[in-house]
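Reminder to self: tokens first, then the designed residues, so the page reads top to bottom the way the pipeline ran.
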């Protein structure tokens, strides 16, 4: 299955390792390698099994909804996120 992450970009759900919120990554200097030269409009960073960094202007919460994952599959979720 594939995940549409925005801007006509799709990634294989079998290769996706992580979907990150850029605002969360900016809180730690350890994540600097993922944030170098990142345009301001980028909201999501997807890391795949080949260590590729794929960016998207779509909210990470929207991208996660497109995966079909349920709450049991998520390692972390925003405290006040609404269930759809």
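Designed residues (84 positions):
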């Amino acid at each position: 299955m594939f995940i549409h992450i925005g801007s006509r970009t799709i990634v294989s759900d079998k290769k996706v390792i992580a979907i990150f919120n850029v605002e969360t990554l900016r809180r730690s200097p350890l994540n600097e390698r993922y944030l170098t030269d990142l345009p301001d409009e980028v909201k999501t960073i997807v890391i795949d099994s080949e260590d590729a960094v794929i960016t998207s202007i779509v909210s990470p919460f929207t991208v996660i909804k497109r995966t079909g994952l349920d709450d049991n599959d998520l390692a972390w979720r925003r405290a006040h996120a609404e269930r759809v």
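Residues 60-67 form the longest helix (8 residues).
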